[in-house]
Amino acid sequence: MALTISDIAKLSDVSTATVSRVINSPEKVSESTRKKVMEVIKKHNYQPSGLAQSFRTKKSKTLALFIYDIDNPFYAKLIKELNKMAFDRDYTLIICDTENNKDRELEYINYINQNKIEGLIMTEGISTDHFNKLNNNMYLVCIDRDLDCELPYLRVTTNNRESVAKAIEYLVNLNHRKIAFVSGPKDVKTSIERKKGYLDIIKKYELPVGDDYIYQGDFKRESGSKALDYFLSLSELPSAIFCSNDLMAEGLLARALSLNIDIPNELSLIGFDGVSKALYKPLTTIKQDIHGIAETSINGLISMIEGGVKGNTVKEISGEFLIGETCRRLKSGEE
């Protein structure tokens, strides 16, 4: 049977109030008393009740995470990293699958306001003003997202624009000029930044690319498949396609395989995220530093909570360009 705080007090020959102070406010207890009580606690492997501690300290050590798409392998890996890091810092992480639905997000905001949630991490999504409904004492971190609210927050992001520009320039150096682009949802921050990176290189090299070479996707696998069907319907086919995430690239790759289109011999392909489980060959992609994103987010949020300091700050994490087997160099005049 597990020991109670009263048992620890008896074994230490002190009051229960003294044991409580040793656990929650050790600076208020003499060194000799603190050492005596801690020896008993360690000897009997006593674990204080987290719930009881939260009532005493008025701190729940509970965080919430708003997830855009829990089925996306990028977010699955991010959840795993964030949860482990929160646990290692003695915090509990609640996962809120918002599905980028405004009403669903508002329901979760109401839940957070009604419970002792100390900090909130939000992944990408469409910015709305309902985040102004959050309690004023809420500490916020946004991963790849801008908020339309008055609360200050830490924004953690991959260098999306620069990373995509590097990937498109890689294709240019492989002699590709007809480069198509599959975007994510039009109002999502990462989608906007990645499209800007694509357009930067199109403009830089004055490539013969019009609006018909940009397909509006939704970050889901099926839209990658539909994107390929769309590009195949054009009078001038692209020689290379950049997909704004790996899921869409996988969908496009699967559709190409079903149509007997050889990638990369007939079409070059690049994705974004670095989480692909490609069907038959490694995908050339931009790998996001998921560990670095999670570490920066958790450490930043807990530092704000424990330091009682808020402020608008941006932390940018570099992506890594990984060359797989889905791109090839065109011969001069081949395109």
Automatic annotation (TrEMBL):
InterPro entries linked to this entry: HTH_LacI, LacI/GalR-like_sensor, Lambda_DNA-bd_dom_sf, Peripla_BP_I
Q: Which Pfam families match?
A: LacI (PF00356), Peripla_BP_3 (PF13377)
UniProt KW keywords: DNA-binding, Repressor, Transcription, Transcription regulation
Domain HTH lacI-type per the UniProt entry, residue ranges: 2-72
Q: Name one GO molecular function term.
A: transcription cis-regulatory region binding
Which CDD domains does the protein's record reference?
Answer: HTH_LacI, PBP1_LacI_sugar_binding-like
Question: Could you tell me what this protein is called?
Answer: Periplasmic binding protein/LacI transcriptional regulator
The organism that produces this protein has a lineage beginning with: Bacteria, Bacillati, Bacillota, Clostridia, Halanaerobiales
